Amino acid sequence: CGSLVPCYDNIQQAVRLAIPPNTDIMVLPGTYNESVDLDEAAADTGGTHGDIAIISVNEAGSEAAGAIVDGGNNPAFITGDTFQDNLRIDGFTVMSDQSDGVLIVAAEDVTIGDMTANGVSNGPSPDDTGDDGFDLTSLAGNVLVENALANQSRPPGGDYADGFELKAPAGDVTVRGSHANNNKGSLDNDG
To answer: d(Cα 75, Cα 25) in Å, to the nearest integer?
Structure first.
């Protein structure tokens, strides 16, 4: 980890040990085979979680793409109804075989930047909407998706999914410099 301390074996451990009110989690290049549940933020510190930024960085600690999160059959990053704070996820390639690449539910302001979602539309996701690249749902604040790419491939007989599914946002939704390939739709905004 060099000068980046403390250092953890996986992203989930860093999330669980987050120190409120604001935490930046810097992730070095490599492949992380895990589904990062942000609802567990600060679970091991006994505090309530606050704003979290999870950022892919190079060996010097500067923001740079290079970290890959493979959620297997689950989203690479996920929140449920207990994460109510601001969230920034930046610089990752995320993969999921049978689920959304990133599934954010009930978060406050959400920023997704410089990310690629690669997945296989192979069945229903946890929210029964298909296997979207970025599924940002029931948000209470603003959503910014910037410089993101959603590549959802489709096996024979499988359904296409949306690159970006944004549902019921209470604030502003901004999508800039982003693309969706091999998807049912590029952008689905049900809200």
So the answer is: 19
What's the average pLDDT block by block, 10 residues per block, for the chain (191 residues)?
A: 81 88 90 93 74 92 93 88 84 86 81 85 47 74 87 60 72 84 60 49
Helix (H) / strand (E) element for 13: namely helix 11-16
Q: What is the pLDDT of residue 143?
A: 82
Task: Give the H/E segment covering residue 97.
Answer: none
Distance CA 91, CA 77 (A): 13
- Dist CA 66 CA 145 (whole Å): 19
pTM of the complete model? 0.86
Biggest CA–CA distance in the chain, Å, is: 49
Contact, 122 vs 88, CB < 8 A? Answer: no
pLDDT score recorded for residue 175: 86
Q: In 7-142, which ranges are E strands? A: 22-27, 30-32, 36-37, 51-56, 67-70, 77-78, 87-90, 92-96, 102-105, 110-120, 134-137
Distance CA 11, CA 16 (A): 9
Asked if 35 contacts 75 with a C-beta cutoff of 8 angstroms, the reply is: yes
Q: What is the pLDDT at residue 125?
A: 44
